[in-house]
Amino acid sequence: MFVRCFHIVTEIMQGDGTIAGCFSVLGGYLIHLSYGYLYSLTNMVPYIMGYLITFIDPHICVQTSVWFSAVTFAVYGIFMPLGGFLSRKIGYRPVLALSCLFLRLIKTTQIDCKISGGVLLSYFTIQKTYVGVILTYSFLFGTGVGLGFSVTLAVAATWFPEHRGLVVGLVVSGYGMGSLVFSPIQTFLINPNNVPVNNVTRQFDDPEILNRLPHVFLVIGVILSVTQIIGLILLRSKPKWNCEDDKIEILDDSGSSDCEIMDDEVKFSNCSNAVDITPSRLFRHIDFYLLWLIELCNSIPLTLLTSSYKLFGQSFISDDKYLTIIVTMTAVFNASGRILWGTIVDQFSYKIPFCIISLMWAILLLTFPYISLTDGLTAKILYCIWGIGGFLFLSSVSTVAPAAIGSMFGCTNMAINYGIIACARMRRFLWFLQESCIKGTCTIRLGNDISAFQYSSDMRQEMVIVEDSYSRTA
After folding, report:
1. Where are the domains of the chain?
2. How confident is the model at residue 381 (pLDDT cuts 50, 70, 90)?
3. Under 8 Å CB-to-CB from 438, ≥6 apart: which residues?
4. Which of 428, 415, 413, 298 is nearest to 365 (CA)?
5. pTM as predicted
6. What is the pLDDT of residues 428-458, one digit of tens each?
7. Cβ distance 300 to 461 under 8 Å?
């Protein structure tokens, strides 16, 4: 059945370049939608921490929740260049299949099985140990996202080179929509009656709620698998026309190619003289180091928002359904913002948006912690406004950077080049580890929520300075 559907879609996509490109972008969108489950982490963390503290280890500190996001993004950054490198050597489909074989849990042919498999394995690990949950829910998940993230973007972006920013924005909008799709499902399955947190500990400790958590991993794992299968069927690389020989070269699933003579009226042929910088030459360009620093500065607030946003709100707002609704709303702005920033990059430049976004995000992060000093309806309204603003500007991280890399270094090696720059996220993980070792504990202690978010704001302000110098180098 799967093979038959794949061949039918392939025949349709070979007929017209525009239709094929749209199908491929849709496929990339669905794959990134499954990646976007990462952003529902902020909704799941309160339930996970409540389960671990209640049933596994009462001595676990709530601050350790930051490790879920830190490990995920660190591993994601490490494996991203590997995914791009392998796709160049053996083709993107074998890379997807290789990930499935590595996990050996779900019999599909895509990289994203690591994601769904990691989620499925969490059904077992959460009932045993905190470290096990980090391994399956964060490490395996981050590995799957890292291997496929830039590869999916690179494949989809080849179809519409003149609208690269928009295509990247459309695909990664699926990444931002993950929380919109999965957060309501999580809350509906775990806490359908909107039972509040414990007034003293500000954590979930109701056994009826917490006992539902392990089974949610199984349901989400199946949903992710179905989404990824459909996405893989639709995603397809664009045929490459050799301008000198008037040949069109189509990479097959094994990475090899078949060439056939085509006439000059091939509608979706595309040749350009754009510069394509190889990974080995990447380190000779000052722009690479500036982008790497920008990615590094991005990583700190990115980790805190994705891991602690709902947990922070839970400390002064007891309405779990309201918090879930706000998390869902932020996903809408996270997704639509990616399309917005992609369009702006196409129309103007990636430098000015970078500076504006960083400055506004720094202001939001600096003032966000003080919302906890309010209460009642005021606290809810301010929490909503600041959350939407934070995730709207967060959406630029995965849109402007890939578009900038494609413009400066070319599309041919975009997957590898973006992966190398994304390795800056590993530095964030080392920073968290250093903080833990200095404190002599396994938790991240920055004094309190206010100092944590203010530190993030300081990092964003440093990034504004870096980006200002970056704009002047061109």
Report:
1. 2-238+274-473
2. very high
3. none
4. 298
5. 0.68
6. 555 555 444 444 333 333 334 444 444 444 4
7. no
